[in-house]
From TrEMBL:
Co-factor note (free text): Binds 1 FMN per subunit.
Protein's recorded name: Dihydroorotate dehydrogenase
Domain Dihydroorotate dehydrogenase catalytic: 7-281
Source organism: Raoultibacter timonensis
Function in brief: Catalyzes the conversion of dihydroorotate to orotate.
Subcellular location: Cytoplasm
Amino acid sequence: MSVDMGVNLGGLAMKNPVTVASGTFAAGREYGDFVDVAALGAVTTKGVSLNGWEGNASPRIAETPSGMLNSIGLQNPGVGHLKECDLPWLADRGATVIVNVSGHSFDEYVQVIEALEGASVDAYEVNISCPNVDAGGMTIGCETASVEAVVSRCRKATQRPLVVKLTPNVTDITEIARAAEASGADALSLINTVLGMAIDARTRRPQLARVVGGLSGPAIKPIALRMVYETHRAVSIPLLGMGGISTGTDAIEFMLAGATAVAVGTANFMNPTATLDVLAGMEYYCEQQGVESITELIGALQC
Ligand SMILES: Cc1cc2nc3c(=O)[nH]c(=O)nc-3n(C[C@H](O)[C@H](O)[C@H](O)COP(=O)(O)O)c2cc1C
């Protein structure tokens, strides 16, 4: 039986629902020896800003039970490098591309999008949820007023599908989701990392130089599933679900909770072909369950 794996994420046609979580797959080239990037529903690039950012001081990675903490701080070489080196490589391979956009100010988000409008990009993912920067990032994504301000300005800057990435570090994610939808988002992605910290008892010091970082990996999957479920019931635009996905079954669970597409993140660090394994697992599930189109599963949770 052949399963129709195609989905539409707010105007972005994806040949299957699987993309990568920004920041865990670089710009795709780094995984080129392992993954045919054109086989994925989309490649989502690492967050890019107008000019390069150095990121935070080390140590900025710590391993935790069933997860990892990071405080990278959106290190990236800037939008010019992405345009000159990475986007042409992805275009040559026929990849569908989502560029993750970051900024220290509302203006910077718009400037990054404007810089990319002539480039081979299929959609933008606006990151208003990074916990590891002092200005921009999560500070914007926690208040409805700033969400409305940045999303409506990005909306005016492009006709391309606009995905807005939400933080789980809020009291009520559905309030933020509705604000993003009302301001012109075509889709929402969730969740970014969960605030956490790790301590080395022997040295009595925090394991991250920045003390607090973002938790990702299987440890956060139940939180992410709950938030996808709640958000699906609160908005009518499609969702890109992520948080601890490492198997096809994990991904199917996100679709049942209400995701239209899914992103594989931290799992890429342990298994560079995790994306392809997740995709194969999803297809196998559909064959076993007699699912003809993967879209049948979106929000099909029976409570
Ligand atoms: C090392 C690292 C870097 C990340 N960088 C970004 C980023 O640049 N932009 C962004 O929106 N999210 C970033 N994230 C968050 C992931 O895209 C994703 O939302 C989160 O890790 C949850 O998914 P996972 O548990 O499958 O990793 C990063 C995560 C990690 C672990």
